[in-house]
Design goal:
The protein has about 350 residues and is α+β, with helices and mostly antiparallel strands. The protein is about 45% helix and about 20% strand.
């Protein structure tokens, strides 16, 4: 896999295409993507529409140095993963595919594996490649990385047939959370951040493969901690409107201790309470800057993002943004009027 200076993102969807044109558009996708990729990168693996079935594609591919992540929904398609001999530098590829939601069938050699919600496969390309068949829409996540990179954490990894991944394990759940965040444009604007994200995914893939082998990773890697923190931050964002949101509640939902949550934030130079406050203020600022919420009172906005004391909200908001909530709203409304 090539090493681009910056990570690249490719997106494709059939949503805006006429139904009759979707099958051919999907067949052409493999070649259409090539000009958009950096030298040495491989395009999305070939897609073949299944006969007499509606075609649906909504896919994002993000390529970082040493890692490719493909995320999206496919329906009415056969997704062919090419054999190692058909891919430049592909003999060393390690693949983990997660069937996030829906039903798929994975086929390699004479092995067939039905995948339901949350199931995953671990595979190498092999001399025949493999296929993923999705007659009906299925949400998926795929990660591709060098075997040698993961072997550095686990020991030698030889060519191996497709195996069913460890369903429901924490490492798999964390990989989905973290890799989806990367695919959805988690900011990775510098080579240092890209290398850090790749090393995190390496750790998570190593933990998953260790579970497939019946073993375990000796020490919790950087990636597991980073993915746990990402999951905790997502939990906080989802429950931000709960004025009584506490570290104990979040820790219980994430199946860790409150002290561990504090340690994760401390490692990033943050505290749980400062992160929650910052997220609440940011969400309030977005709402006050959006004309669609102009009919909402400032008190209502403050309550919706989890503040129980309006005077405290006004004080902290002004300290953080250098303007009152009312001034931010008026500025946004004035800008909206000039645009019309």
């Amino acid at each position: 896999m090539g090493v681009p200076d910056l990570c690249t993102t490719f997106r494709f969807s059939t949503a805006g295409l006429p139904v009759a044109a979707r099958a051919q558009a999907v067949r052409d996708l493999h070649n259409r993507e090539r000009p958009l990729l950096p030298a040495g990168s491989e395009p999305i693996e070939p897609l073949e529409p299944l006969p007499n079935l509606p075609v649906l594609v909504a896919v994002t591919k993000r390529t970082l140095p040493g890692l490719a992540i493909v995320s999206g929904t496919f329906g009415g398609l056969r997704h062919g993963i090419r054999p190692c001999k058909a891919v430049a530098n592909g003999a060393d590829d390690l693949l983990i595919g997660v069937n996030v939601r829906g039903c798929s069938t994975a086929l390699q050699h004479d092995r067939e594996q039905l995948l339901s919600d949350g199931d995953a496969i671990v595979a190498t390309r092999g001399d025949t490649g493999l296929s993923l068949v999705r007659p009906t829409p299925a949400r998926f996540l795929g990660c591709r990385m060098s075997r040698r990179a993961v072997a550095a954490l686990l020991g030698r990894l030889d060519e191996a047939p497709m195996s069913l991944g460890p369903h429901g394990t924490e490492a798999l759940s964390l990989l989905v959370t973290y890799a989806c965040a990367i695919a959805d444009n988690l900011p990775l604007a510098t080579p240092e951040l890209q290398r850090l994200a790749v090393s995190h995914v390496q750790d998570l893939m190593a933990a998953i493969i260790a579970a497939v082998r019946g073993g375990r990773v000796v020490a919790e890697g950087r990636g597991i901690a980073a993915a746990r923190l990402r999951a905790i931050m997502t939990d906080i964002s989802t429950n931000l409107g709960d004025g009584d949101l506490s570290v104990a509640e979040v820790a219980q939902r994430q199946r860790v201790t409150p002290r561990y949550v504090h340690k994760l934030f401390e490692a990033e130079g943050l505290t749980f309470s400062s992160f929650v406050l910052g997220q609440r203020l940011a969400r309030a600022h977005r709402m006050l800057s959006d004309p669609r919420f102009s009919d909402r009172t400032i008190g209502s906005v403050a309550f919706d993002v989890g503040f129980g004391d309006l005077s405290y909200f006004n004080r902290t908001f002004r300290h953080h943004y250098g303007a009152t909530p009312g001034e931010i709203r008026q500025s946004a409304l004035k800008l909206d009027r000039t645009r019309r």
